[in-house]
Amino acid sequence: MNKIIRSLMLAALVGVSMSTAFGLRGHEITDSVVDLSGPWTVTIWMQQGDFDMTWQLEQHRDNTLTGTVEGRQGAAEVEEGSVMGNAFSFSMTRNFNGQEVMIEFKGELGEDDTLKGTLIAGGGQFTADFTGVRATGGK
Q1: 89: β partners
Q2: How confident is the model over 12-41, as pLDDT tens digits?
Q3: Which of 15, 24, 32, 78 has CB 3.0 to 4.6 Å from 83, enough for a Cys bridge?
Q4: Rounded to two decimals, what is the model's pTM?
Q5: Parallel, antiparallel, or unpaired: how do β-strands 87-96 and 114-121 relate?
Q6: Distance, C-alpha 8 to centroid of its chain
Q7: Who contacts 108 (Cβ-Cβ below 8 Å, separation ≥6)?
Q8: Residues with Cβ < 8 Å from 5, sequence gap 6 or more?
Q9: What would be the CATH architecture of the domain defined by 38-134?
Q10: Every domain of the chain and the residues it spans
């Protein structure tokens, strides 16, 4: 009897996992339960004042993330972007006074369709929190 119950529970869990994977994107199999594709308005909270950016992201079938990030210093390409569950990360490279600096963004998409995370620059020498909302015209 225990083997039957365990088998039924396992089948139910697999069924829930498969329906979650298939349910959000139809025919695709994905580990992600969110889709970050579209425009985002992001605010970075710094001691010197808030810094606003626009992200245009595209989440692919394999849960890689590409796109552009635009702020006061112009646009930069999203590099090494990925999505796992509701968590995401990507980096971009900026030139500051002739020196290339990698900036990493790590965060999560909340249930209320808002982003929350941390910016890490200079190998961890600088960090700041950020929040974001889908821009008008987004998903």
Answers
A1: 82, 106
A2: 333 333 333 333 333 343 556 789 999 999
A3: 32
A4: 0.73
A5: unpaired
A6: 35
A7: 86, 87, 88, 115, 116, 117
A8: none
A9: Beta Barrel (2.40)
A10: 1-30, 38-134
